[in-house]
Amino acid sequence: MPTSAGRFYICAMTKVGILGGGQLGRMLLQAAANYPVETYLMENDAGCPAAHLCHHFISGDIKNFDDVYQFGKGLDAITIEIESVNEAALEKLESEGVRIYPKPAALKTIKNKILQKQFYKDNEVPTADFLITQNINELTNNSSFLPAVHKLATGGFDGRGVQVIETKDDISKGFDAPAVLEKMVKIKKEIAVIIAVSDTGDTAMYPAVDMIFDNRLNLLEYQVSPAVLPEKILWKVEAIAGKVVRDLQSAGIFAIELFVDHNDNVYVNETAPRVHNSGHHTIEANFSSQFDMLWRVMLGYPLGSTEHILPAAIVNLLGAEGYSGEAVYEGLNEILQIENVFVHIYGKKETRPGRKMGHITILSKEKQELVHQANRIKNTVRVIT
Amino acid sequence: MPTSAGRFYICAMTKVGILGGGQLGRMLLQAAANYPVETYLMENDAGCPAAHLCHHFISGDIKNFDDVYQFGKGLDAITIEIESVNEAALEKLESEGVRIYPKPAALKTIKNKILQKQFYKDNEVPTADFLITQNINELTNNSSFLPAVHKLATGGFDGRGVQVIETKDDISKGFDAPAVLEKMVKIKKEIAVIIAVSDTGDTAMYPAVDMIFDNRLNLLEYQVSPAVLPEKILWKVEAIAGKVVRDLQSAGIFAIELFVDHNDNVYVNETAPRVHNSGHHTIEANFSSQFDMLWRVMLGYPLGSTEHILPAAIVNLLGAEGYSGEAVYEGLNEILQIENVFVHIYGKKETRPGRKMGHITILSKEKQELVHQANRIKNTVRVIT
Fold first, then answer.
1. What is the pLDDT of residue A158?
2. According to DSSP H, which parts of chain B are helical?
């Protein structure tokens, strides 16, 4: 059997584990079935969106040292689909030769918001000014820093653990635990960039994405890719995102969220060391999707192309306010009649207000068509009970 | 909970079973994860390409009445990824209210080559002239009908069960069992068309595909979609394919393979009542892939769009001659560097000469680029051991 790393590729199947079984794991496993790879997944809930799409499902707690260590022993590589995993176990596995994407050191930096902000500062990555508060008293003592955003150092996810503190009156809403107090930036635009890094240090950057927010509800309305940005701002965005990933010194896939303020300054908001909601359009819209790309990284293949096949928008399907229970997708049939629309339902049995239940991708050469259909979808589909 | 069939869709998950666990099942299950559906799969081999991608894997013999009947009881719908299933069990399940795609009556017609040819004749669908032979003596007695192709009535698959009988000297290669003796047509082109039919009789036809053969080896070299055909021939192709599907009177997805002769006559070669190799490019190249489309049919959604996003070609990766054993994909890394190429490896542990081990899709606006890359892939990738 040929064994050189050059023209030959050996198919004794690589064993790759995923920690976490949500929609990111689900889409990662859909993409895995294009390659010769044996997949392992650990998650507490056997009914989670990804559990049925792997070769080996292991019930376990991804935050528990022993569970993660036992899961990872004997695997060739591990990735995560959520940051809240036991990083000590990953460090031990890494020291024993298991390839981890992202590296535990990078994960450690990112998953603690205090360390993450300090990392930007230490590496001269532009980010909003901040203070560190250990408890509610320290927040009170820094009221001159308001208006600001209070972000819990650990444990926040999907909007939880983040609190806007406009004035002294809001201080009681702050966190009585280690947190970052971040100066509020007057945001003109929010942008996201996804970058893949191979084991050999090759990188591939996806076109920047426009994240369009409903300012009234402070909710992501839809995303458009590629972002419409003046060249100079785009250059800043790409330079900053590239620097973040270089400084993290880890292979894997990274999503960098950035703000543009009214003076066209660009700041990093936060980084995720994994596949990310802001890259879901790449499944249909780009030659190599973010999920395909991560498999290429983990299996040692060449990086894929981040070029667009067609521009795209996505709309997240969130559980509607006031509905908890078995999910019903109102308006789905109407949307499935639109030619250039792709539906992704995550297979979660129960909906809850704000829960990510699916997303819908629109492809079109025309920006107007993307925005039109995004709004139509938002006004048509509701996840209720 | 709303129950009307109109604007509301109920997500109490539909239970759908697949008989057979090869690459077609694998790609079908990749597509299933976009929808709320609970998947069941039956196959003897728990290591088959699709086994790990369903909610419920049931080990069983798809040719056995009891196995298929027990599998299907309690499911909402069943589809097949291979014709050689127990159709009597499907008939019983159908009579008990399980929706079967395709209908057992259509499957029965198609899976027996004698019945299939007779169906074309009865419905005035143009097809090559034929005789029916019950044994080798009847073949000998009809030597004036040569040159012809002898096709076993049942049990043939992927080239097995088909024998070219040019002259009397070849008669010993014929089948001593019920078979069709089909007059050899001088073929100018081979074309395939995939059509979806919904429960309500709506149809969606994919653009016709050019199947390019190596005449020397009589092997499919690659496929290009859409086919380049004079309008008049295309009309014939579409009219004939449409008639076949209408006359079969079944919902589901159907692949119709056709010949064009040197006088521009169009003949049906054969029909498959399922997703098909000639539609694999639709995964990336069309808005709704053949796999997505079959889920839409089975879940009662509107049919998707068969329009091209970009033209495409595919190359099948077959096990190389002379190699049997654990598969190695020579040249894969080189191909993965091409921007507009998508790799699908089916995850079969063992290769054998001629075994379908994967396929590679190329997307491009330029026909020349499609053909160039198809040839490059054919000359670069080899499945060996």
1. 58
2. 23-32, 65-72, 87-95, 104-111, 113-122, 136-141, 231-248, 282-285, 290-299, 332-336, 367-380
Where along chain B do the CATH 3.30.1490.20 domains lie?
A: 129-183
Residue of A nearest to B5 (CA): A333
Residue A3 confidence class, pLDDT cut points 50, 70, 90? very low
Start-end of CATH 3.40.50.20 domains in chain A: 14-101
Domain A14-101 classification at class level: alpha beta
Is it the case that residue A1 has pLDDT exceeding 70?
no
B49: closest chain A residue by CA: A33
Given a cut of 70, the residues of chain B with pLDDT beneath it are 1-12, 156-159
Q: What is the DSSP string of A276-337?
A: -GGGTTHHHHBSS-HHHHHHHHHHTPPP----BSS-EEEEEEEBPTT--EE-EEETHHHHTT
The residues in A 132-171 lying below 8 A from B, measured between CB atoms, are none
> Which class is domain A129-183?
alpha beta
Q: What pLDDT is stored for residue B12 in this prediction?
A: 66
The whole model's pTM is what?
Answer: 0.94
Coil/strand/helix, residue B337: coil
What are phi and psi for residue A189, nearest 5 degrees?
Answer: -150, 150
* pLDDT at residue A218 tops 80: no
- Chain B contact for A333, CB < 8 A? yes
Query: Which segment of A18-32, A150-164, A218-232, B18-32 scores lowest on mean pLDDT?
Result: A150-164
Q: What Rg do the C-alpha atoms of chain A give, in angstroms?
A: 21
The complex's ipTM works out to 0.93
Q: Is A58's Cβ below 8 Å from some Cβ in B?
A: no
Residues of chain B with CATH 3.30.470.20: 187-384
How many residues make up chain B in this entry? Answer: 385
Q: What does the alpha-carbon distance between residue A277 and residue A225 come to, in Å, rounded to a whole number?
A: 13
Cα distance between residue A146 and residue A103, in whole Å: 35
CATH class of domain segment(s) A187-384: alpha beta
A363 token code pair? 């492809």
